[in-house]
Every structure is written in structure tokens, then in C-alpha cells.
Amino acid sequence: MVGSWTNSGAASDLLIPLDRAAPVALHRQIETAIREGVRSGRLPLGASVPPTRTLAADLGVSRGIVVEAYQQLVAEGYLSSRPGGYTTVAAGPSPAPPQAPVRVPPEVRIDFGYGRADVAHFPRAAWLRSLRRVLTQAPDDRFGYASGGGVPELRLALADYLNRVRGTNAAPSNVVVTSGFAQGIALVVQVLARRGARRIAVEDPSADDDAREHARAAGLEVVGVPVGPDGVDVAALAGVSANALVLTPSHQWPTGGVLPPPARAAVLRWAREHDAVVVEDDYDAEHRYDRAPVGALQGLGPDRVVYAGTASKTLAPGLRIGWLVPPAWLVDELAAAKVRADRGSSAVDQLALADFLAHGEFDRHLRRMRPVYRRRRDALLAGLARHLPGFRPAGVAAGLHLVAWLPPGLTEDEVVAAGRSAGVGVGGVGRYRLGPGPEGLIFGYATLDPPAIEEGLALLSGALH
């Protein structure tokens, strides 16, 4: 690439250090500095170097010393000079030594990866209307630092929505706005550790990149509680001693089980007996297809449950908005931890979501998306039955993914590798386990249209057979 320097540069631009006490002649020092600049690429090909008079004046040496240095560099091919013209760099850096060929894994064309809402359906026009209203109508003081709990408008709107739709028992003053669930669980772990917590229980299997990760970073012991077809095994939980339990009771991640009422009561009993906190990760309960809504566990035990929600699975993860509804005795500590973390989430985005909720746009968006996701879920179920009939789907009534248990003789690693060789991305359940368990795959379908789902399953089947 030809350089853009001009001949108005000075010695400081060339980074030429001169040591007058050194035994090396000054013109040799100038040569060495320019030569190294060319070799490293710091002086690009075609760049002009300062005229000899200018450089000599800047360095405090005679012009003859600079002329001698330039002449030597021209002779070596580093510089080029012509009468009446500029002196320019005539060479580039040495080519890099040849590298061994890098093995590039086959490209994944159809990705059944989990964890993504279809952001192509993000309601841009409605969100823009909310932003415009906020920017024209919000009081000036809302654009200062928010409290650790969040702006009042969003805390009120979330409490109203969650009480109405999720059956929570939430007061606006108990809502703490976070930057997604990831920050929310990190704040909960920090506060519990400060209060003396030593052990946290999680479902097995469960996500490996949030509660478990933050708990270990805080020095807490992580113990797994087995999961059955209907969520966490409360019989196994009875034998666990922990300061907190992280649950996905409305749609267990990743197996999809729904915790029934007797088990929910048992979880709350366990929490009271062990003076423990239950963190309810309500990550995708709004997406349901074949069942009636299941209320939040927090509504049954607001004194023991920290409810956690997020806009990532309903609107877009890029918004980075989540929320906690902790027991009253934890609110101030969580709000203070939020302030320490980042001085509060974006006030504009909080106000926009509050307006979005208040004007019913969130409900309308969910009503539009449920049939979209249901069609994709149905296409996945039909395709599995057609192309991979030995796979047993589970957790299909809600959410944005399902688990398919594998038939005897197949392992997760074999299927994942076969899929990748065919350009199909799919993940196994095993990486999320703390103990042994059956082999299965996680199929996310939120971002794939039915033809892509059909093609992906056909390719996977072909790769296996």
C-alpha cells in the first residue's frame, strides 16, 4: 500500500534517536533508524522522507551527515531519489515466513444453535416510536445517573407486566434493572457471597456460562441436582445443603421439563428449611405453544425467590436489558452492587422499554412471534420424525429449542461431528452436565425458517447414514 506521508515530516516523525556519545557515526545512526523503520513497515512504501536540510535542522547536525545517510540508503534500495523531486521510501517490509496451512473446519450453513431470538423480527418501528416519545417527553433528570434499581417508569411497567402475565408478586420498589440475565446472576452471586454463602446448587444439566461460572469465580462450591422429565428432582434436592438454588422451573434448560405444583411447594420448603434463596431464571416462558401459561415460582414465595427475567429471548439480546425481583431484604444490596458494577443501565433504553410495555407493544410483539416460532417448532418435529425417527424429542411445548434424546448406539460427539462435516451445526447436552446422563442434542429453531430446518435435518440424516 502506498504511503500518504508528505515531505513536510520532521525527524520526530521518523523516530530517529541520536546518541552523540556513542562510538557509532551519526550518519550510521540515521541510516539504521530509517532502515529499521522501512523493514518494520512503520515507514510505508512510497512515503516521502523530510528534505535533507529539514532533517538536519531538526536533528541539529550538518546537512552533509544527512546527505551521506540518504545516499547510502538509496544505494541499498531502501530510498529512492531523483533530482528536483522528493526522496521516498522504495522498499516494503520483509515478507512474513511461510506459514503451515491452517485447517479450516467445514462451514456451518445451517445452525441449530440455541440461545438466539430471531432479531430480524425486532419491532423497529414500534421501538422507534417509543424512543421518540422518550426523547421528547422524559423529564431532564431522567438523563442523569439512575438509581441502582433503575428508572421508576421501567420498574413500574415491569412490575405491572410480570404480575399480570407471569403471576409474580412484584412491587415496583423491588425491581432491579440489569444488563441482561448474565449481569443479574453475577450480582446475585456477589451479594450472596458477601453475606457468607459458601455453596450454590444448580440443575444438572444447566447452562455452563452464567450461574456456575460466576459462582466459581466468587469462590463458591457448585453442586448439581439431577433433573428428571418434570424438572429438578426434589427428592434429590432434599439431601442437598446449599445457600442458593438456581432453577428454570417454567421450562427447564435444556431438557424442557415443567416443574409441577407439588415439586414447586417442595422447593420452597427446602429453601425455608435451609435458609436458602431460590433464583428463578424465567428465560423464555412467554413462548408457549401447546400448554396453558405456567405462573412464576416467585408468586408462591416472594420472601425466598429472586425472580430473573430478560428481553434477550423476547426482543433482542443486543438491548442488554434484564431484571431481578428479589425479596425485599435483598433489594438494597443488589441495587448497590449494580451501582458498583456500572453506575446503572442506559436510561434511554430503560425508558424506551417502559414506554414499549405501557403502550402494549411488547404484548403485540409476542402475539406476532408465537405463531412464527410455532411453525418452526412444528417443522422441526415433522423433520425429525421423517429423517431421524430414532431421535426422541422432549421439552417441545414451549421455548425456542427442544432436546432430542439419541437412540442406542449413537453418541453426541458422533452426531455433532457428522453434522459439522455436512455443514450443520448442532450441540450436545453432555457439555452442560455435572454428572452422567443420557445422550441428547439441543436443537434451536428460532432463527431458521421451515425450509432451512428441513434441509438441515436431511443433511444430518445423510451424514449419519
UniProtKB/TrEMBL annotation:
Alphabetized Gene3D superfamilies for the sequence: Type I PLP-dependent aspartate aminotransferase-like (Major domain), Winged helix-like DNA-binding domain superfamily/Winged helix DNA-binding domain
PROSITE patterns on file: HTH_GNTR
InterPro entries linked to this entry: Aminotransferase_I/II_large (IPR004839), HTH_trans_reg/aminotransferase (IPR051446), PyrdxlP-dep_Trfase (IPR015424), PyrdxlP-dep_Trfase_major (IPR015421), Tscrpt_reg_HTH_GntR (IPR000524), WH-like_DNA-bd_sf (IPR036388), WH_DNA-bd_sf (IPR036390)
Every HTH gntR-type domain range: 24-92
Keywords from the named record: Aminotransferase, DNA-binding, Pyridoxal phosphate, Transcription, Transcription regulation, Transferase
Signal peptide stretch: none
The keyword Transcription regulation is assigned to this record: yes
GO MF, any single term: pyridoxal phosphate binding
UniProt entry tagged with the keyword Phosphoprotein: no
Family statement drawn from the similarity comment of this UniProt entry: In the C-terminal section; belongs to the class-I pyridoxal-phosphate-dependent aminotransferase family.
Protein name: GntR family transcriptional regulator / MocR family aminotransferase
